[in-house]
Structures are given as structure tokens and as C-alpha cells.
Specification:
Elements (H helix, E strand, L loop, with lengths): L2 E6 L3 H13 L3 E6 L4 H9 L6 E3 L5 E3 L1 H11 L10 H32 L4 H4 L9 H19 L3 H23 L10 H13 L3 H7 L3 H9 L26
Parallel strand pairs: 1-2
Antiparallel strand pairs: 1-3, 3-4
Helix pairs in contact: 1-3, 1-8, 4-6, 4-7, 4-8, 7-9, 8-10
């Protein structure tokens, strides 16, 4: 019996795990959950409200993209998703951690504010969803779903302004990982799989896409995740906060 991967359609950490399972050659079925309603399901099944969660053939359950990828390394060591050399592994794991803890939440905030400001965009985000939700019903549910997700993900207009102001610096960091060979190699590692789907999700948000296009990180995201549902037009998100100029030493 294949493993069961519990996801929300369009979730970047869910895409991380799905791609890792494919690379490892592990059979799995996808169980798609409704946005917002997934929280109660996941808490009951996995003890945490977040996706992704996976149930292996023997009944073992693991939740969270980083934890799942480590378990996949144990179950199917080839192809490896982590370098064997200690220094290289430490750099990859640090990039993965930063992508999970810092970059990943930014993408969520951009999407949920964009959807709240432009509810019609919910239809594009569900283009390849397996849930049988008519477009009209999806549009009607968008304000409620985005409001709940606001609460779950600490979204605010001020936070998104700060996110957009900080985004060029974050993208420089990802491009730096590529330049240093930490990510972007021929064979993806755990940091590639953590960072690339987050960048790819941001690229369906027009106001973020204009900051990402043409960068090395955009090429990486498109190479690893060429298809991604969603489209939030340019001009939907608030103007980014002004970044304070660095103070000169006296």
C-alpha cells in the first residue's frame, strides 16, 4: 500500500515533500484537504495543525517538511538529499532551516493578503485541485478562507509591507546560496526543495514576481517546479515599507 501524503493544494512545503518522494521513488497517494479545515484534521491525525503530514505503509506518521525529508533519507538513502561531507551538509541544513523558518512564512502572508484583496484569484489557485468545488463557490468562500488564514498565519498589511521591503535582501541571500554551490546543483538537496517552491509560490504574486524575475533563484524555482497554480495581479499588495538607510558611525 502506498504512503499517504496529506496536503493543501498549492502549499509550498507540501510541494517540497511530494518532490522528495518522487526523487526517492517512494510510492504515495495524495490526500487533499480543504484550506483552513485542514487544521482540525491534521491536529486529530498528527497532533499538529499544519501540512504536510505523511502516513507510511507500516502506520508510522510524520508531520512537517523537514522532519519528513529526514525520515525519507533513512528509508531510501539513494538518491541522497544531503551531502556526506560535514561542512557542506551544515551549509545545506542551515539554508534549509532559514528557508523553512524565515522565507516560507513570507510567501504565506503575501498570498493570503493578496487573496483577501483580490478574492477572484482563488479560482486560479485551485486550477489543478482535486476537490470538487465550483468556481462560483470558491469565489464566495475566498473572504472567509483568507480571514481564517490571516488568523492562523499572523497576516497583516503592515507585515506584508515589511515583507516586500525585505524581500530583495532575502532573494540576494538565495542567489548567494546558488553562487556558493549550496543549492542549484544538478541533483536537488533538501535546501533546494525547501527554497525553490517558496520562490515559485511567490512568483504567482504579481508584486513579488516583479522582484524575482530574472534572478538565479527564479531559474531554479522554474526548473524544479515548472507548473504552479495561481495568479494575483500586480498592484494588489500594499506599497512596501521604506527601508531605513543605514546610520553612519560617528
Amino acid at each position: 500500500m502506498p504512503a499517504k501524503l496529506y496536503v493543501v493544494h498549492g502549499s509550498h512545503p507540501c510541494a517540497t515533500v511530494a518532490r522528495a518522494l518522487e526523487l526517492k521513488g517512494i510510492r504515495f497517494d495524495v490526500v487533499e484537504l480543504m484550506p483552513t479545515m485542514h487544521a482540525a484534521h491534521q491536529r486529530l491525525r498528527f497532533g499538529r495543525r499544519t501540512v504536510p503530514g505523511i502516513r507510511f505503509e507500516d502506520g508510522e506518521k510524520v508531520v512537517g517538511s523537514r522532519a519528513i525529508l529526514r525520515r525519507l533519507e533513512e528509508l531510501a538513502p539513494d538518491p541522497p538529499l544531503l551531502p556526506t561531507e560535514a561542512e557542506a551538509r551544515a551549509k545545506v541544513e542551515e539554508a534549509e532551516r532559514w528557508g523553512d523558518e524565515v522565507l516560507q512564512p513570507i510567501a504565506r502572508r503575501l498570498v493570503w493578503l493578496g487573496m483577501r484583496r483580490h478574492p477572484a484569484s482563488i479560482v486560479a489557485f485551485g486550477e489543478h485541485s482535486t476537490l470538487p468545488i465550483p468556481d462560483a463557490m470558491a469565489r464566495l468562500s475566498a473572504p472567509m478562507i483568507s480571514w481564517i488564514e490571516w488568523r492562523l498565519n499572523d497576516v497583516s498589511e503592515d507585515a506584508v509591507r515589511d515583507d516586500l521591503a525585505a524581500l530583495p535582501g532575502h532573494l540576494d541571500r538565495v542567489d548567494g546560496y546558488i553562487a556558493d554551490g549550496v543549492i542549484g546543483g544538478e541533483a536537488p538537496n533538501v535546501a533546494d526543495l525547501q527554497l525553490a517552491p517558496t520562490i515559485r509560490l511567490m512568483m504567482v504574486v504579481g508584486d513579488a514576481r516583479t522582484l524575482i524575475e530574472g534572478r538565479p533563484c527564479a531559474e531554479l524555482a522554474l526548473r524544479l517546479f515548472p507548473q504552479w497554480d495561481g495568479d494575483i495581479p500586480v498592484g494588489v499588495l500594499p506599497e512596501p515599507a521604506r527601508v531605513a538607510a543605514p546610520t553612519r558611525a560617528a
